[in-house]
Amino acid sequence: MGDFYQNGVITNLHNLRTRSLQELEQELVTFSRLRPMSLVLPSLYSELEGPALGNIVDELCEVPYLTEIVVGLDRADKQQFENARKFFGKLPQHHRILWNDGPRLRELDKLLQNEGLAPSQPGKGRNVWYCYGYILASAKAEAVALHDCDIVTYNREMLARLFYPVANPAFNYTFCKGYYARVAGQNLNGRVSRLLVTPLLRALKKTIGVHDYLDYLDSFRYPLAGEFSMRAHVFNDIRIPSDWGLEIGMLTEVKRNYSTRRICQVDIADTYDHKHQPLSKDNPETGLSRMSTDIIKAMFRKLATTGVEFNQEAFRTIKATYYRIALDFIETYYNDGIMNGLRVDRHSEEQAVELFAKNIIDAGSQFLERPMEKPFIPSWNRVVSAIPDFLERLYDAIELDNS
């Protein structure tokens, strides 16, 4: 349910339920003449066999304003790549599939490795980075949006609302983040955002004091949303993490390059559900345990670049402050959920908070022990400086794969 409250240092664009999808799409068709639009879909091959992607493709077939759809396909052999071409072949828009495991893109990745410029690990960050490289090479888009391929509650109004702020020539926004209530069925979801990111930001404010970066992140209603849009040129000069810190890293880089007046967030859905990660409290390399550690390190890295000094004593203080604040948030969300007829398992919520508190110490130790760690993928400007014809070679390889 929409509201009109403006909080924080970025603009909130609400869903006040005064316009139809048809109206939005008609305007976007008009905008597309000045600002052509491309959509990026980072996907695992397994998602082609899941419950969400078939409906997403059906909805996208009805979208009238897209110039291009770029699918980044991970973990696919040759036969699976051919299956993906058939799967996405029904799209009426111009579309291309990046076969990230194919020989042509692997050869280009080796070229980057030789220059020390290749993404350091597989995953969504690497996938998105290559997709944006193709969009820069194809030069078909002025505005680009991205969303995940596991959204089981997807409808095309989400995309229209996500694109609108950066596609409208009368607006000055360069970057837009989607947000929504993480509610599906009778469940209140979004544990990492609710029980880690927001309480940790509040704890950092208490321990290190007023900081514009913390105020900025705290302005986002759902900072870990995988849905965002931007002007195409933004991706030339930003460095994104290749790990689970992608969403926080993207917000960090955009703030580094642009005024908060050029950044906004938009309400794109009343309900939202997608694939849920296990807590993985016994395995720090998977699930929400790995995700939370990567996110915490992304915050610590950024604060360090602004002059904040960290040591083990500081991390212990941050952990203790976080733990108390997070327990209060459990109570708050429990009451909110019960009033709205939702199921909230306080025991599992406290288990998550205990794990996140432990991972604050672990992430801090890793941060101190590996001062030379390079989690960021180089900007495309740097790649082109080192290998001037790389984008053309990337474009040609993808066209050959799709021909």
List the uncertain runs: none
Largest sheet: 8 strands, mixed
**Beta-strand share of residues:** 5-15%
Kindly provide the radius of gyration, computed on alpha-carbon positions and rounded to a whole number of angstroms.
21 Å
Secondary-structure class:
alpha/beta
Give the helices and strands as they follow along the chain: EHEHEHEHHEHEEEHHEEHEHHHEHH
Q: What is the CATH class?
A: Alpha Beta
Q: How would you name the oligomeric state of the polypeptide chains in this document?
A: single chain
Domain module tally: 1
Portion in helices: 40-55%
CATH superfamily: Spore Coat Polysaccharide Biosynthesis Protein SpsA, Chain A
SSE blueprint:
Blueprint: E1 11-13, H1 21-31, E2 37-44, H2 53-60, E3 66-74, H3 78-88, E4 94-99, H4 103-114, H5 124-138, E5 143-146, H6 156-167, E6 175-180, E7 183-184, E8 187-188, H7 191-208, H8 212-218, E9 228-231, E10 240-241, H9 246-257, E11 263-269, H10 287-305, H11 312-339, H12 346-369, E12 376-377, H13 380-386, H14 390-402
Parallel strand pairs: 1-11, 2-3, 2-5, 3-4, 6-11
Antiparallel strand pairs: 5-9, 6-9, 7-8, 10-12
